Amino acid sequence: MASLQVPKTTVALLVLVSLAQVSLGARRLSSLVQQPAELLTYHNGAVLHGAIPISVMWYGAFTPSQKAIISDFLLSLTLTSQTQPLAPSVHQWWGTIDQLYLSKAGNIKRTSIVVASQVSDEECSLGKSLKMSQVSELAAKAGPKKGGIAVVFTAEDVAVEGFCMNRCASHWSNRKSGTAYIWVGNAAKHCPGQCAWPFHQPLYGPQMPPLVAPNGDVGADGMVINLASMLAGAVTNPFGDGFYQGPKSAPLEAATACPGVYAKGSYPGYPGDLSVEPSTGASYNANGVDGRKYLLPALFDPSTSTCSTLV
User: I need a labelling partner for 237 at 20 to 30 A (CA). Which of 179, 181, 191, 278 fits?
Assistant: First the structure.
């Protein structure tokens, strides 16, 4: 499982997070620190490809606006005749994963994301303080399909084991069932300076002013960043033997290998030269459906050992 770590020093610490299932990548709290470029290679394992069904579990109280921000991002990943966003787009970002990774694994069919189902547990049937084993239980309740991904979103008043301390989001899998799982938490109340940067003042590192969130919700817009990172890892390294660099127990993957990079000109504590919406002052690098704008992480290009950005 992979996590995003908060840099309490100038070096990001990669800490192993384990579950009873296959140990995979996580988005750790390392947003403000860029890692030295290393070799990210393909380890000849399976990847997810073709039409990938996504099963969603909303755990806790999400507003209709928050659900719409995240759901529209998922819809923006796949281009349809009804969705023709301006460039640069979320769809282009997803196409980069196809180009840089999935095509190298013998996948000749373009990959698409299909939201297959959504369920809600607004009453928090397992409580508001979850162990990762309970998050796995919730992922199973989402009803994932073989070759698909179950995504668990936890609301801002739900605490999850390790959340903020050593991870903002995680992905893992069950090889026997052929499914992958993702968890993303809303950090608006718990740790926005760690898991919602650059939309909140960072807890550590250079203290530059936060950016304006493109959809006006620091928690939900931060969740999109973490979700995008985990989706990139889940499809390119679903079972721990796909694309990654470093130790298998704590891998850097397609997006987590480029922490804190969102546009050209980035450096530690500065996300890069992003586009700005004149009417709101919001920063973004990708257009989505229905005029949505999002901030998405850079993707590591294994052929050049550089971070590829949309802008």
Answer: 191
CA angle 61, 154, 80 (to 5 degrees): 90
Name the residue with tokens 């950090």.
187
SS3 213: coil
Contacts of 1 (CB under 8 A, 6+ apart): 17, 18, 19, 23, 24, 25, 26, 132, 170, 171, 172
Assigned token pair, 39: 């070799």
- Please say if the pLDDT value at position 83 is more than 90: no
pLDDT digits (tens, 9 = 90+) for 242-257: 999 998 888 999 999 9
30: left (phi over 0), alpha (psi -120 to 50) or beta: alpha
Task: Determine the 3-state secondary structure of 104 from DSSP.
Answer: helix
For residue 279, give the DSSP letter: T
- Summarised one tens digit per residue, pLDDT across range 175-189 is 888 899 999 999 999
Distances (CA, A) of 281 to 212, 215, 276, 290: 6, 11, 6, 19
**pTM given for the model:** 0.89
Tokens (6 digits) for 116: 């297959």
